[in-house]
């Protein structure tokens, strides 16, 4: 459930209250909520565009760096390396690394960030709607962090 769904929920609740109080729909309330919904949707679109652009630029920089360093190392290799390693194997290694950086890592990174913020937003929303949940989630998070540090050593 995102910000837009919360806004729509508030809008429908307010519209119902207005109809019960005045007997008809109030245009000012409708305009306010329509503008708010439009702004939330536009800001979400801009945020998604910026996140995708940042991810693409970071992955492009990583690919460029990896390719440049790998090419520099292969060029500086001794001739005996080229006698024992086929040129096709070197090219396949380059193409596989670049393909992984261009296609696999961005998808996995995007899924990681999306899941992280989905879980974070769900926890915040549950804490907002059910304050008693906060009393249970904080000790669980502390226990989780304690166990992570303990098993890491």
Please give the radius of gyration in angstroms.
26 Å
Q: What percent strand?
A: under 5%
Q: Multimeric state of these chains?
A: single chain
Please tell me what the overall shape is. elongated
How many helical elements? Answer: 5
- Sheet bearing the most strands, described? none
What is the arithmetic mean of pLDDT? 83
The H-and-E topology, N to C, reads as HHHHH
Distance from N terminus to C terminus (CA atoms, Å) equals: 38 Å
| Helical/strand content category | mainly alpha
Helix content: over 70%
* Weakly predicted, low-confidence segments: none
Number of domains: 1
- The tally of beta strands, per DSSP, is 0
Task: Give a verbal description of the structure.
- The model has no long low-confidence stretch (mean pLDDT 83).
- The chain has one domain (3-152).
- The protein is elongated and about 90 Å long.
- Helix 1 runs antiparallel to helix 2 and helix 2 runs antiparallel to helix 4 (87-129).
- The chain has helices at residues 3-22, 27-75, 79-84, 87-129, 132-152.
- The protein is built from five helices and no strands.
- The protein is mainly α and 153 residues long.
- Helix content is 91%, strand content 0%.
- It starts with a helix and ends with a helix.
